Amino acid sequence: MEEHMQPCPNTTTISSRRRPTLLLSFALAGALMATAAGPMPAASASATLDGDAHAQDVRGALELIESVPDDVLVQGDAATAAWFLENGPGARAGAIDDRGLVTTQASVLGCTAAIATVIASTAFPAAKILKVKKLIGELGGVAKAVQIFWGASFSYEKLQAVGGAALALAGELIGITSIKEECFS
C-alpha cells in the first residue's frame, strides 16, 4: 500500500431502524462478489460448486430472501423490517445501546459498498423481495439459481446470454449501475 493511504476503521454504528436493510445488503453483497473463474464442465460442476466461496455466498443470500414468509412480505416494508429484526441473520449479532444504535464490525469494499449504499439509501422493499422469491422459484430453487449464476461465472454479460428468469433475477439484485460495475464483469 502507498504511505498516504489510511486504514479504514472496522467499527460502524448504524441505527436499529436500518439494521434489516443493511444486513440484507451485506448478505447480497457477499453473494454478488464475483471472480472470472469461467464455467466448469457439467460433470464436475456440482463438486466444485459446493466448494466455491462465491457460490456459497450467493446461496446464503438467496436462502435469506427465500426465508422471509410471504404473509410477512404482503404486509409491507414495516412488517418485513420487523421480521428481519427478529429472524434475520443479525438478530443474534451486535448489541443495541440505549440510543437504539447497533455497533457491528464490517469490512466494506467494492461490490459490498455499492450494494450497501444502494439498499441502505433506497431500501429493499417487500415487493422486490416477493419478486426475487418468484424468480428463484422459476429457476427451480436456490440451488439451481446459484448453479446458473456460477455457470455464468457471475458475469452479467454471460447472464444476458442465458436470459429468462436468470437475467431477471440478476437484474433485480443489481439493477443499479454502480452495483453492476462493482459486482459483475
Using DSSP, what is the number of strands? Answer: 3
Radius of gyration: 17 Å
Number of domains: 1
What shape does the CA trace take? Answer: globular
Name the helicity range. Answer: 55-70%
Widest β-sheet, arrangement of strands: 1-3-2
Order of H and E elements: EHHHHHEEHHHHHH
Largest sheet, strands/sense/barrel: 3 strands, antiparallel
Distance between the termini: 25 Å
How large a portion of the residues is in β-strands, by DSSP E? 5-15%
Round the mean pLDDT to the nearest integer and report it: 65
Quickly give the structural class.
mainly alpha
- The low-confidence parts are 1-23, 25-44, 101-113, 115-122
Number of helices: 11
Secondary structure elements and their pairing?
Blueprint: E1 11-15, H1 19-32, H2 42-51, H3 53-67, H4 70-73, H5 77-87, E2 95-96, E3 101-105, H6 110-122, H7 126-138, H8 142-151, H9 156-162, H10 164-174, H11 177-183
Antiparallel strand pairs: 1-3, 2-3
3D structure, described in words:
It is a single chain. The chain has 185 residues and is mainly alpha-helical. It has one domain. It is built from eleven helices and three strands; from the N terminus they run βαααααββαααααα. It has a three-stranded antiparallel β-sheet with strand order 1-3-2, with no helix packed on it. Helix 7 (126-138) runs antiparallel to helix 10 (164-174) and helix 9 runs antiparallel to helix 10 (164-174). It starts with 10 loop residues before the first strand and ends with a helix. Mean pLDDT is 65; it is low at 1-23, 25-44, 101-113 and 115-122. It comes from Clavibacter nebraskensis.
